[in-house]
Amino acid sequence: MNAITPSPKLHDCRDAFVAVLERLGADNPKIVAVCNDSVGSSKLGGFKAKWPERLVNVGIAEQALVGVGAGLANGGLLPFVCGAACFLTGRSLEQIKADIAYSNANVKLIGISSGMAYGELGPTHHSIEDFAWTRVLPNLPVVAPCDSIETAAAVEWAASYNGPVFLRLSRVGVPDLLPAGHKFELGKANLLRDGDAVTLIANGTVTHRMVKAAAILAEKGIEARVLNMATVRPIDVEAVVSAARDTGAILTAEEHSTFGGLGSAIAEVVVAEAPVPMKILGVPGIFPPTGSAEFLLDEFGMSPAGIAEAAVDLIARKSSRT
Amino acid sequence: MQPNDLDRIAQQIRLRDLQAVFEAGAGHIGGEMSAIDILTALYFRVLRIWPDQPKHPDRDRFVLSKGHVALALYVTLAKRGFIPEEEVATFLKPHSRLNGHPNCNKVPGVETNTGPLGHGLPVAVGMAKAAKLTGATYRTYVLTGDGEMQEGSNWEAIASAAQFGLDNLTLIIDHNRFQQGASLKDTNNLAPFPAKLEAFGWDVTEINGNAMDEIVPALEKRGSRPHCIVAHTNKGHGISFMQDTVDWHHKVPNAEQYKIAVAELSEAL
């Protein structure tokens, strides 16, 4: 296949989210937005202007935010509960567990500015634990789209899916990678580039870095497979097993702790189904120092060059086993 | 249904609850006995419900926020026809759908899963708000414990309910004055409740929560603001040796105590 080249223009995926929400909201009066004072940071100003009564703002009260969302769904509405991912998942985790996942409430949880999007604001505002916290909950799909096209497709899918969803969005600009008209399929990875030396798997803001890393590797004559794996739960077992069998090594990268996130979810499959050498890139179990998201991703080895270097090391481990 | 008939039903529910706790060897009998009169008034008089259509969109919503008294709800739901009466005997047994806290995906009539305290009221606020947004005429009722009001999430929801003008929402606080390990007073005394709720913009009614002739009119009261009923109840109500002692939060009677309790409740039938 032809390798995907990232477009030069960068997009804030919140724009794609609200564009689809407003389009769907026009046809479906049951769609309501619920927020914790986060009208601006969730970019809900347009929604509010169109349907002020359908914007339910509970104020700075995240436990009520999620509980009220569950109640709105019980009353027949389709709530999109929006908040900064760090507060939405951290402050209200028990509400997400009991009121949403265990109760199987048809609520869409939209975690805004996830990962280290709040950069210099520091670890209180980073959401680099949310995959770990949410992916252990039954009934709750966990999805982190890689670009504005996948964000739009995932929002459209979430609205039509009958059950809870955690959609993890960022505000950090990312290039479009997926083709226009892309349809989101839960639990299905997207092949962005094929190769047999190693598989690079990422999601969210890191996928485009993987694509660029694969281009660097190609210059060295190393052909890497690149998978975009937006769905962290349910994980795409088939794609992971094929990657392990076809390429013999898997490198993952994510804007999340290396503990319990995408890499861990993939490792769980690899260990059980097709053991091969793996390397998990992410935030290495520390509270990050001051810096922007881009700076910190580079700092933690997730620049395209850093990823390529890790891939070369991993491939060496693969060869040394044979 | 009139208060006398409701009293009789409440005593029957108490007896069945006691028997189930004794047989299962577990339960939260003190808080069950304090709340059963309120549950009876709701399910046999106040709530607009259809047991054969538990998901009817116009049904009134009831949320048992003090989910640990699930057994009292199960017995009430069974008596009202939501689940078979004989199913109560499966309480806490392996694979029974009647576990220690109610599950809305398994038990018809349960609206949302509760157990961790401080969850029911925010969800009930969402239900009442949904009715406002859609024009639905159902009302939403939620029952919390008094100790449970120590959870901050309740106060987030109380503020939201007033802000949203939810005159279709009724909060009942089962004010039995005891929590798991001590009295409310010796733990984190939020009582008296009325002034606090009023300060948040709620209407408040104080009643004897074990007296049907006070419970029914309070539940049927309509106003222009969210309504809180502070229901003064007795933990272990109806069983003399359990009443108003912290010991009976989740203790199980022995054979001799069970016999005495059955006799006392039967006498009141």
From TrEMBL, chain A:
Highest taxon listed in the record's lineage: Bacteria
Organism this protein belongs to: Shinella curvata
InterPro entries: PDH/Transketolase, THDP-binding, Transketo_C/PFOR_II, Transketolase-like_Pyr-bd, Transketolase_C
Transmembrane segments: none
Listed name of the protein: Transketolase family protein
Residue ranges occupied by any Transketolase-like pyrimidine-binding domain in the UniProt entry: 11-176
Pfam families linked to this entry: Transket_pyr, Transketolase_C
CDD domains for this protein: TPP_PYR_DXS_TK_like
TrEMBL record, chain B:
Annotated Pfam families: Transketolase_N
Ribonucleoprotein among keywords: no
InterPro entries: THDP-binding, Transketolase_N
SUPFAM superfamilies linked to this entry: Thiamin diphosphate-binding fold (THDP-binding) (SSF52518)
Cofactor(s) it depends on: thiamine diphosphate
Keywords, comma-separated and alphabetical: Thiamine pyrophosphate
Residue ranges annotated for the Transketolase N-terminal domain, each copy included: 8-250
Record bears the keyword Nucleotidyltransferase: no
Family of the protein in this entry: Belongs to the transketolase family.
PANTHER family named in the record: TRANSKETOLASE N-TERMINAL SECTION-RELATED
Name the UniProt record assigns to this protein: Transketolase
Naturally occurring in which organism (per UniProt): Shinella curvata
